[in-house]
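Form P-L/3: holo structure prediction, ligand S-adenosylmethionine.
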Amino acid sequence: MRIDVFTIFPQMVEHFVDQSLLGRARREGRLDVRVHDLRSCATDPHRSVDDAPFGGGAGMVLMPEPVFAAVEAVDPPRPLLYLSPAGRRFDQAVARELAALEGFSLLCGRYEGVDERIREHLCDGELSIGDFVLSGGEVAAMVVVEAVARLVPGVMGNVASAEDESFSDGLLEYPHYTRPANFRGWTVPEVLRSGDHGRIARWRRAQALRRTLDRRPDLIEARGGISAEERKLLAEFGLDGDLPPTGDEP
Ligand code: SAM
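OUTPUT (holo model):
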């Protein structure tokens, strides 16, 4: 998979990639991340990439010339997605969509954002990592790159755990424990030490259901509620208190 990132702070993104598992994947040729400096295409001696907004107002705006020139010089993989609070909300489903592509590209804004012609005529879409405003798209780009790359088989080398974790089937993940079995009197649930793999799998699923019910009822609603079989599973482990009504119940 190839991911191109366009930014005025290439070192920020490079450093992040380099210092994480992504860097290893890149060095070993499993992931092709290319970071491009938007200033490299600035035409004036000050390497300006921003200018004041037409119509007045606070802040500066990224100019079209250097951004178009930087992208056109590279012909990066499409879609080219502009990171923006006004974009489509990035979540695990979007990460999966992007992970299925051969590649894609990200444009990081700064200041008040980018000239509207960049959004309209250069980019193919927009992504937001949440309803808050960052000072630039770099952190958002890093979020997207990491979340996507770990879903690409062979990139991070642990597909089984990616399949098991939060959101993979619309649920939050079950709790994990490691040694010691007794830490300050807090013990690991007996079932995890039982060696009964069928029961462990059922317990984990019940825990994932319970955790999602308690913390993210919106996710339960989105997947159509709790089935009769899941209700039974919760009851098996005493986790069936306060269940919402299910569609398939009388
Ligand atoms: N004036 C813009 C607005 O109100 O939508 C915000 C600009 S913000 C200070 C600067 C840059 O940070 C944006 O161009 C965008 O690239 C990035 N950014 C800020 N919040 C973001 C978010 N929630 N998701 C993705 N990118 C974000």
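COMMENT: Residues 83-86, 108-110, 112-113, 128-130, 132-137, 140 surround S-adenosylmethionine (CB under 6 Å).
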